[in-house]
Automatic annotation (TrEMBL), chains A, B:
The gene is dnaN. GO terms for biological process: DNA strand elongation involved in DNA replication. Keywords: Cytoplasm, DNA replication, DNA-binding, DNA-directed DNA polymerase, Nucleotidyltransferase, Transferase. Belongs to the beta sliding clamp family. It comes from Paenibacillus oceani. It comes from the Bacteria. The keyword Transferase applies. The lineage of its organism: Bacteria, Bacillati, Bacillota, Bacilli, Bacillales. GO terms for cellular component: cytoplasm; DNA polymerase III complex. Pfam families: DNA_pol3_beta, DNA_pol3_beta_2, DNA_pol3_beta_3. CDD domains: beta_clamp (cd00140). Transmembrane segments: none annotated. This is Beta sliding clamp.
Length: 379, 379
């Protein structure tokens, strides 16, 4: 089977699919990628649970067999991508000569890559009767993921916290992530047919982060379907399938006390830059101390034993309630402020045991909330 | 002592000086950098043998002491650079408040950085009676270093081969580097006063590579002076001092046999791209097999056990002598072709025991020669 494809298109598809190739795996075949050449063009497929990515390059080839009639060929993913990256721009001819060889012709070069029968590659999980079907603009989905995915837990101690909790009632989509010290949530209005069923699932954070990187086509939309075990994200030329996490997600309804003691309105970018500088001298624990100086200004203080200390001031736009004096992890706050990405921000402080809440100005149809547990210090 | 400097200028000087800070050192003080604030401005100094870098920011401060009257302050180099990188553009005030504290003020921030007395920093070696004084345009020096420095030995087995051998007769400057498998040399005409004495020295390759990176000012020139132990490169605002290597450099006069068996003229860029692709499938030894196919074309072949193989053709512009069939390390040849950087190239092949010679077309007043020991294979 032989097909001609442009180098740029093939490289893009290869790079997208390779995101599902695990960096290391006990199963050597998972360092490979399945290539199928068929009547509708080229299909690339990589990964196994929790993440499988399938990419299609549509080139009508009426003479070739249907996709289902051939297992395809597993080729080493990294070598294949390295070769295509180095090929000159222009047409590339791919030919599967038998069950174990892929020929790549471009310019004056001929590469022959050893492969194995696609039958040996772990089968991608099939979705059952879908309980959810949503359509979202890529820009909305990408932005929502970027706003929360950083806050998932990096530790496997509570596997459920490595996931992003997603809930849709057909009118709104809510994404939540927390590692139990910080919490991020974002909600967007979504326009779906009125019979869209409600849905709740916990999607591994790593899959969500890869999905956000893959959503480069800002014009397009993503179709989401899911059953009890699996969620799939379809764009025009790619499908990312992802096994869901199972377990009880911690309750998120009563995280914020009723009334704040203090409320500050600040410029997000100014606060971010000041905290980034203060964390340079805030020691290993990254402890940043914030206190109101006047109605117009708050001070941020950091101290690193034997290295030095730092004091920054940021202007306050409005203040309500008492003043505040509180310490927090500067690195965690930086992550939150980067996710908020500009505009103005409401910081709310509660009594001693309460969290710090950060809430950006709501945009059209969407709102976000971030919480950070303060650090108790002797100060 | 207090001085005001622009953030951009301070950052540039810090980044240049930090090149001499060793990545790790048994002497903790070498993670620091000496800062001196004095009548002529700011001096930054870092490193110890073999490489010391001194950078000056000239700001006339008539009220301050002379540079020699104060030891300055050793501050943690990396933290200092990180802080200045994060400061807003605009003026930065540096104040040395006592023998152990540097205050940095910018915008609404105040950093206090702990330091130690500059007296404790290893003294930079002083040059004796110089045997060499040369002036070279930065572009010439940078280009010459880039053409040979990659070929120094990475192994300390023969320390002398980790250096670049430099020779000047007052009319020409020649730089040579070899790790005994590959050899690179370049010669440039230099216009110096007629009484310039001849000179020969072996400069550590790492210092030469850092120097090439620092020569960003294409308009300027570098003044070189040296004695038996030390060479110094001075630009408008920076001095790099470097301890010389001592020992007998291998003889380089009779490396090339008298007459080649075969001579091919090829386009450097086309050959480079073809070899880069072939090395993707040339196995762990990176063995590339080259053979002439016709008077117009040569083939390059690579083979990686259990992964695949590759064949590329490159056009030949002219050919002289017999055909050729020879194997070499593709990675090493790639380094050579990258150093040559374009144009056309003469490849010469000798008998079985001889090297492969690569010679780019000589440019105005300069010429280069590269040699590579072939790999003996059963082919």
């Amino acid at each position: 089977m032989k097909i001609e494809v442009s180098q740029a298109e093939l490289l893009h598809a290869l790079q997208q699919t390779a995101r599902a190739v695990p960096p290391s795996s006990p199963l050597p075949i998972l360092a490979g990628m399945v290539l199928r050449i068929h009547r509708e063009g080229i299909t690339l497929l990589a990964g196994s649970s929790p993440m499988v990515i399938r990419t299609d390059i549509r080139i009508p080839m009426p003479g070739l067999p249907r996709e289902t009639e051939d297992n395809g060929l597993v080729v080493p993913a990294r070598t294949f991508a390295d070769i295509v990256r180095k090929l000159p721009p222009g047409p590339v001819e791919l030919e599967q000569t038998d069950r174990s060889m892929l020929c790549i012709r471009a310019g004056s070069g001929l590469f022959r890559l050893c492969g194995t029968d696609g039958e040996e590659y772990p089968a991608a999980p099939e979705i059952g009767r879908p309980t959810l079907q949503l359509r979202l603009p890529n820009t909305v989905l990408k932005s929502m993921i970027r706003q929360v995915a950083f806050a998932v837990s990096a530790s496997e101690t509570r596997p459920i916290l490595t996931g992003v909790w997603c809930r849709s009632d057909g009118e709104q989509l809510k994404l939540v992530a927390t590692d139990s010290v910080r919490f991020a949530s974002t909600t967007s209005r979504i326009e779906q047919p009125s019979d869209t069923p409600p849905f709740e699932a916990i999607v591994p954070g790593r899959c969500m982060a890869e999905l956000a990187k893959m959503l480069q086509d800002d014009q397009g939309e993503t179709r989401i379907d899911a059953d009890e075990a699996l969620i799939r994200f379809h764009t025009a030329d790619m499908t990312l399938s992802c096994s869901l996490l199972h377990g009880a997600y911690p309750p998120i309804d009563r995280l914020v006390p009723a009334r704040p003691n203090c409320e500050l309105k600040v410029d997000t970018e100014k606060l971010l830059q000041a905290i980034e500088r203060v964390t340079l001298l805030s020691g290993e624990g990254c402890v940043v101390f914030l206190h109101t100086v006047s109605a117009e200004s708050a001070a941020l203080v950091g101290q690193a034993a034997e290295v030095g200390d730092v004091r920054e001031e940021v202007p306050i736009e409005t203040v309500a309630g008492e003043g505040v004096a509180i310490s927090f992890n500067g690195k965690y706050m930086t992550d939150i402020l980067r996710a908020i990405a500009g505009g103005t921000l409401m910081l709310r402080f509660y009594d001693k045991l309460g969290p710090i809440a950060a809430e950006p100005e709501p945009a059209a149809g969407s709102s976000s909330l971030y919480l950070l547990t303060p650090i108790r210090t002797s100060r």
